Amino acid sequence: MSDNVLSGLAEIVEEVAGVAADDVTAEKSFVDDLDIDSLSMVEIAVQAEDKFGVKIPDDELANLKTVGDAVNYITSNK
Amino acid sequence: MTSGIEVVITGLGATTPLGGDVTSTWDALLAGKSGVRPMTHDWVEKYDLPVKIASQLVVDPTEVLPRVEARRLDRSEQVAIVASRQAWSDAGHNDDTVDKQRLAVIIGTGIGGAITLLTQDDLLEQQGLRKVSPLTVPMLMPNGPAAHVGLELKAQAGVHAPVSACASGAEAIAWAYRMIMSGEADVVVAGGAEACITAIPVAGFSQARTMSTRNDEPEKASRPFDTGRDGFVLGEGAGVMVLERREFAEARGAKIYGRLAGIGTSADGYHITAPDPEGVGQSRAIAASLRSGGIDPADVGHVNCHATSTPVGDVAETVAIRKAIGDHPVLTAPKGALGHLLGAAGAVEAIVTVLSIRDGVVPQTLNLENLDPAVTLDVVAGEPRKIKLEAAVNDSFGFGGHNVALAFTPA
Hints:
Chain A has helices at about 5-15, 40-50, 60, 65-75. Chain A has about 80 residues and is an all-alpha fold.
């Protein structure tokens, strides 16, 4: 798993949802652990697309349950 | 009243162009301060707007709220949250003091999330759909301030948002009165919020020729009842009060600021923006507030006026006051200092009225130097006046011909 992608994603999550970047670790669930709602997930996805140059279609976004899922998706679609 | 139910005020909260809370606002009002300052926004020059002044918050809500909370809220919602937290805490409430199904929130706004609407429209135009915030709708909807406060307090007796232009804040308080009197709620958090100092509202009000263009003397621009008045000054802010059924408040040992004894509402049926110069609708609202409160007009010592510093409106209001109450009440117009907070005005000025009764002092009408000869009533000018009040009325009127009068009495 890419540490650069993880730390970059953590910065976005902190900016959008106010979760401390250190708490954004691979095994965490966006909804259940980090208390991020569906509206914030849209914002996070848009910022991640810009930052990492990937496309995250809505049907893929729905599958990204954990931070690790997102890191893996971004890493393999960059 | 026959029901035996009384409505009392137990908590106050505000953020205004005079101060970041109720005490600082009240002190600045009595000290003769003005909240009006030049607008430094880039769009003032860009569109060469004729109005270059506004009454702007002393304490920006983003300085008070956590960053992430603030970015999810329109500015009108931010100020509503700030004022509501103050009022809730001032009332001595916490999570356990009231059954949530007996708690309501009613917060009105005149314009709603205009800043969000325009900002997001710019993003759509310039950067496309992807950049439009998924929070756009909950940020721009006019029930947003009420909804956010209701959610925070988990209020479940009802969450409402009256929209009646510059009467919205007062209408919220009138609605609270009705909910408590009818037995629908024991506690209601009610008020108004407005934050729309941005290009389109300023341009629109300018084109309607309703705003002061005294740009070279911002602090003197808002001057209700003065012969030199030339329109209102746009303001921003929020005022919120906690109203309760008296027995409920007393049972929990709450301090009581005063009583909302009666309310009156009416509509002019006259013109979309101009007030009826004969003040017929306005006087009916005032008379109804006294009737519903069982108050003898002779006992009304003071009227906190809506007077916005427009040539026609200020005089029409005094005609209405004379008709409904008589020649004896002492008047003031807080918009001389505060500017016009639109949907928040009625709520902030209701708070001022409650404090006038509590402290026995009526603030001066800032910038009233030469009383319009068409005004034959006693308007406080120059400095505050000490006066013991048995009852006082707060007027609020809005574009559309909405009239609201709130009649307050001591605790």
